[in-house]
Structure prediction request, 471 residues.
Amino acid sequence: MQIPTRLKKKKTARRRESLSARLIAAAAVLIVLGLVGGGFLLSGVFRGSAEDSFDARLDFYLDGLIAAATPAPEGGITLQGEFAEPRFQRIYSGWYWQITPDNAGKPGAPDIQVSRSLWDKNIVQTGPHDSHGLIWGYAVGPEGQHLRVLERHIDFPVIRNGKTQGMRGYTFAVAGDLSEVDNDVSDFNSTLMWSFAVLGAGLILAIFIQVRIGLRPLRRVSDALARIRDGKARRLEGDFPVEITPLAAELNSLIDHNAEVVARARTHVSNLAHFLKTPLTVLSSEAAAQPGPLADAVFRQVEIMRRQVDHYLMRARAAGALDVIGSRTMVRPVLDDLLRTLKRIHAGRGLNFTVDCPPNLVFRGDKQDLEEMAGNLIDNACKWAHGRVRVAATRTGGMLDIRVEDDGPGLSPEERSRVGERGERLDENVPGTGLGLAITRDISKLYGGALALGASDMGGLEARLTLPASL
Prediction:
């Protein structure tokens, strides 16, 4: 099954907005950059050390070669012990020496002497540079090897027939294959790479664990807020680190202030309703005391105003209750109380009530709002039922589903679309203001729910109320 592109984008956005993901990603980038930079630095230091060691070995061999050289009776020079170093005996081994006399190749000049490893080849140095009497450079070996070359010029006496006949200069050269340095550096880099890879993975894992543990108090705050939202707690509870304690204190202060503002708003709304209802009651009494066309018009307008005051008062109270954080109401006790009350009110009609509601069903909202909505629906069913009223409450996902059915005459699809909107009444002979369904619909919308009317299999009306549920 393919995941929708929009869902993938949302998940990616959530990962980018995650504080822990940002911290881990930033730490991982810094670790990788640090290890890569450190790796290049260590590799460079090791290569420099390996090259210095290689040069020191060349210098050692060159000193040994010069020390082994002595003037020959025939006018040249000879090596005592043939400079016995096994590396210079194996042909094309990568280690070579060469002794070149001045004016080599001219009549009377000695021949160029080379190590057995060089066989019949010569060393031709390129890019030489002088350093304290030593000449450093490079050359190409007999088999294409990249050679590091060290030379020094030494003057020896020319001895013929046992007599010294002046001085002749000789250039002593020793060369070594730089592939040894390259191989050592390659082995070091390989070991360094795997070591740093393991180290980097370990550091990133350590950072991941540290971030997860370090941000655990924030997850506790999130869980505590979820408990407040679900109505399981009224305040942030628990011990928090000193860095989180001010945040918890401010959130608790905000919750207290919110509850205080909502309580004050409810008081003002109640006072306003009281002040409006008193003049309306006076007008209604005066109109009833003086019958006539004017009194009838006044009475009708007063009744409309009273119904509107009741309607918007209920909406204002419900909106205020919705802003109270942590509201949580058990559904079954509310339904049982409503049924007991309505059984007494409609005792003369002999109605049969049935209720089906799990005991652990919880409404995420104010108890009075649930009583208002469920009470309006059940009372409306009682008014129209012939003999049976059925109430069922279930939970589907995160929503609460309350169904109220009766075996009355029911409503046509056109009537169902009209009833409840703006308090419209379909039958003036039934007691009531006609605002019950409209108020229920308005309150349910405030909670993100809905009210739907349909046909019941009992023959009458089915009112289905959907509200948010709590754990």
